[in-house]
Amino acid sequence: MKVINQIAAVTALNVRNLPQRLGGSLVAIVGVAAVVLVFAAVLSMAAGFERTMVSAGSEDTAIVMRAGATAELNSGLGNDDVQIVRNAPGVLRDGDEPVVSPELYVVVDIVKKSTGDDANVPLRGVGSGAFDVRSGVEIVAGRMFEEGRNELIVGRAAQQEFAGLDVGGEIRFGQTTWNVVGVFAANGSVSESELWTDVRVLQTMYRRGNSVQSVRVRLESPGALETLGTALAEDPRIEVDVRSERDYYASQAAPLSQFIRIVGYPLTVLMAIGAVFGALNSMYASVSVRGKEIATLRALGFGPLPVLVSTIVESTLLALVGGLAGGALAYVAFNGFRVSTLNGASFSQVVFDFAVTPELLSQGLVAALIIGLVGGFFPALRAARLPVAQALREL
Amino acid sequence: MTEILAKLEHVSRVYQKGREKVDVLHELDLEIEKGDFLALMGPSGSGKTTLLNLLGGLDRPTGGTVTVGGQELSAMSNSQLSGWRSTHVGFIFQFYNLLPVLTAQKNVELPLLLTNMSGKERSRRAGIALEIVGLADRANHKPRELSGGQEQRVAIARAIVSDPELLLCDEPTGDLDRQTADEILKLLQTLNREHGKTIIMVTHDAQAAEYAQRTLHMDKGKLEARAAA
């Protein structure tokens, strides 16, 4: 009990003294804040990208593509294949009608507003089933395209990111001019980076006959994925892969988000090492400034442990303040920051928002605490081992 | 028969300065009776403060034994020494060594944090100590709001608050003018005569030494006894 009292008393003294060591303390705080800021900012890219991709995917929606295809762009299915999928078990039916959406996926060039350069934007041919297999997709401006006409509806994010997609406007891809008639939202998912039109019009324009690249299927339940997969695998007329939509998008997100992490974590570790030196430096300075106080307390009978703990508490507190500041700054500056990037897997642009998630913030704070503990430990050891008689004489 | 409070037997203290060995105290023997007021004088570097630090358990001898109140300090661990210091000895320094963020009252209470005493009791005792040194009305002032003499009084109150038998003073008037120094020395004399404190005071000031019952002179790590004037 006495030791706890001592620790509390010495720590309280130390904290009350902090304003007198503001300069040195600020160095430590800023160092840690920078680490957490960079950590949260870099990894919020990965988190935002994943969120956008994964939120597009649903567990009770399956995506059927040609066997071996890794993305819609390199898949292809004929009309016979589509019919087999429509009639397969596990597919949800609305009355007699299966809830499926055969879709064609091509890439068009549109100018990116932020850079003025051409970017690959996905243009998806869909039927009315597209709205039934995806939940949360709705027209938020203008109207739905009419079947058989050169009309587009554009994703909300795509409209913000790319030029010439205003409702009522026209846009030209190759030899064809399209009318933009509406804007759709899709819960902030990757679908919002796309342009949609009538699948039959797109098939004609791109001379694809009756072929599509994927069939999205609303399942009776998430468990029906296996039923559908097994049935199609055993059917000798067709060779396809069946995956849940969530799984498909997660695998598409993985290369880029892994790349960001491969860059982000070592960068954070490097900066953290720098911050540890910053913290060590200011804590050694703090111990040196507090030398007289520490020696006096030791002469009065305070033990080395309270001195050790109080120094570690000081550095941890400073690191925590830095961590909170860095996290708050990252949140204010980067959360919701919208960018678009080429998704290597689909060879097209994905528009996403940086997401400074609570998970990232807590990881950043843990990093800050580790920096504080490591940066405080050795100076604390020096404080606790201070030769009292010598320290009193030097002052 | 008078009781011996502190005893040094064949005490040596050698410091290592790089490759050089500095012999600060050499085979020193000393007995200090309970209730003594001893002034230690001598030139700088003669070993006065080292002797004081050994008696206060802030330093350890390289040879010989230091016994205070029947306990051999050299045999104690560092944390045992910390605990011992908190109850058996009070330190008074030349530059007071008060903690600037704390009021006089809180500075005086500091050593009591090392006991299991309640906050109320700590406050009461600190109040009494401040009253003894004549500063009860300055309890809520911070050190920077006090004069040098007042600061040293607070430091004395802090030294006596846990009622130790032994007060160790290192140049307690070294930073004060003559009049203030005399007041502080009178206070120490009162603590010695009326409260029975054993006091060992290092000083360069012959007038200060006159307040002591006896004066010992040190030179080159050895003691030389002379009767007090």
Summarize the structure in words:
The complex is a heterodimer of chains A (395) and B (229). Chain A is of the alpha+beta class and 395 residues long. Chain A has 12 helices and 14 strands. The mean pLDDT of chain A is 89. Chain A folds into 2 domains: 2-54 and 252-393, no CATH class; 68-238, no CATH class. In chain A, a hairpin with a 2-residue loop joins strand 2 and strand 3 (97-98). The longest helix of chain A is centred in the last third of the chain and has 45 residues, at 245-289. Chain B is α/β, with parallel strands linked by helices. Chain B has a 6-stranded mixed β-sheet with strand order 6-7-8-3-9-10. In chain B, strands 2-1-4-5 form a 4-stranded antiparallel β-sheet, covered by helices on one side. Chain B is globular and about 50 Å long. Chain B starts with a strand and ends with a strand. Chain A binds chain B through residues 1-2, 5-6, 9, 13, 16-17, 292-293, 295-305, 388-389, 392-393, 395, and chain B through 49-50, 53, 56, 58-59, 78-79, 82-87, 91, 93, 95, 97, 99, 101-102, 110-111, 113-116, 158, 170.
